[in-house]
Amino acid sequence: MSGLMSGVVVQPRWLVSRPSSSSVNSSSHSNNGRFKIKMAVTSVDEKKKAYTLQKSEEAFNKAKELMPGGVNSPVRAFKSVGGQPIVFDSVKGSRMLDIDGNEYIDYVGSWGPAIIGHADDKVLSALAETMKKGTSFGAPCLLENVLAEMVISAVPSIEMVRFVNSGTEACMGVLRLARAFTGKEKVIKFEGCYHGHADPFLVKAGSGVATLGLPDSPGVPKAATSETLTSPYNDISTVEKLFEANKGSIAAIILEPVVGNAGFIPPTPDFLKALRQITKDNGALLIFDEVMTGFRLSYGGAQEYFGITPDLTTLGKVIGGGLPVGAYGGRRDIMEMVAPSGPMYQAGTLSGNPLAMTAGIHTLKRLQEPGSYDYLDKITSELIQGIVDAGKKAGHAICGGYIRGMFGFFFTDGPVYNFEDAKKSDTAKFGRFYRGMLEEGVYLAPSQFEAGFTSLAHTSEDIQQTIAAAEKVFRTI
Question: Subunit structure, briefly (predicted)?
Fold first, then answer.
């Protein structure tokens, strides 16, 4: 486990410590060893380009006539941070370029998949070769076997896996499977944890729902959520009470082992261990939604990092290398309930398509290289320590934390143990900070209630430039 675990996870505190000198040398990963990235640093004598989003504004105004809110996913509309949403043109490495020509250091990473950097040359080359054979078969392909073997060998809980096309689809499938296997219908989820937009999960779901300040969602029948029980995250006593009040009827507990959809919130000591025990004692299944944390906190995900093995796991993002993908897997006896092996039906035309499998295979190969997770640990530590220090120095209430390539910070003194704590954040101040960072060439998640992500393509220069930008913006908000 990471030497920084004591600063973020084991101890319930948020001001993290710097890594030891034994951390991997950043030069070994500079620019990911694959491509050169144009740095957005101007010389002293060079006049800084005026920041404008005119073309983005024109494109977004047109988009609002074509798509609900002008977007295909709500948080992209910038409702919680204000200002003009950005329309992007291209990505490479740690950088994104918008249609106005502005360049940004990216800490969203397509919401997690870009762990080796955007548009990696080897991944693109492999995709080009695969595309020559076709983009979708709607039938078995050998690449499914290859990626399945890689996932099974990496993730402790997975003995069999089923590929789907998104994290939402994976969570839909795993919930149905848990109910089918146990013969029970109730499920416990945690406030602020997001498991996709399927009806049963839109109960205190955090993420985009919280960002927009909406009720969980109209259009969801009461019957769809009547069997969904909720508890605050990091609160085992409430979980125990739920089991006591619903004896013999709870199929599963599902959670993000590290919350990423209410901001970055790690588990307190023994929380995951207690959940593992209470599910065993009550004949329920423990499900880790590792769509964000899978292959990001460690090669075996959060379950390897924390040493807690669930019964079932959902995956996405990283295992598709930037292409649409999802997966659910777990113990063989449970997974054999899935059709056609068993009676629990789930299907998908594009599931296991050759392009997503190819991108996933080559992304995971890159993560297997020695030092990958040490490097993520090093740069993310420097980033979050720098941002928190700069904020405190400027007199702001701020706390933050990280694990490997995942991080977050809140405009509150903290610590933050659950969604209620997160909601104490000064979201108006976050919006001002966010817009200021955009003008300084830094792209963060456009919501206080979303985690951020680093990649192997981020350099020490990227981190220092980001911290310098934060110092400047903190002085103005």
Answer: Homodimer.
| 3-state secondary structure (DSSP) of residue 369 | coil
Query: Positive or negative CA dihedral for 384, 315, 300, 309?
Result: positive
DSSP structural state of residue 108: S
Q: pLDDT value at position 204?
A: 61
pLDDT digits 0-9 by tens, 308-320? 999 999 999 999 9
Give the residue numbers annotated as catalytic, written as ranges.
194, 289, 317
State how far the Cα of 94 lies from the Cα of 117, in Å rounded to an integer: 6
Structure tokens at 58: 């024109």
Q: What is the CA radius of gyration of the chain?
A: 22
**DSSP assignment, residue 10?**
I
97: which strand partners? Answer: 90, 103
Amino acid at 462: D
Residue showing tokens 């078995």? 140
Helices (H), 135-286: 142-154, 167-182, 207-212, 222-225, 236-245, 271-281
Q: In what order do the strands lie in the sheet with 103-106?
A: 88-92, 95-98, 103-106, 442-443
Q: How many CA atoms lie within 13 A of 111 on its CB side?
A: 21
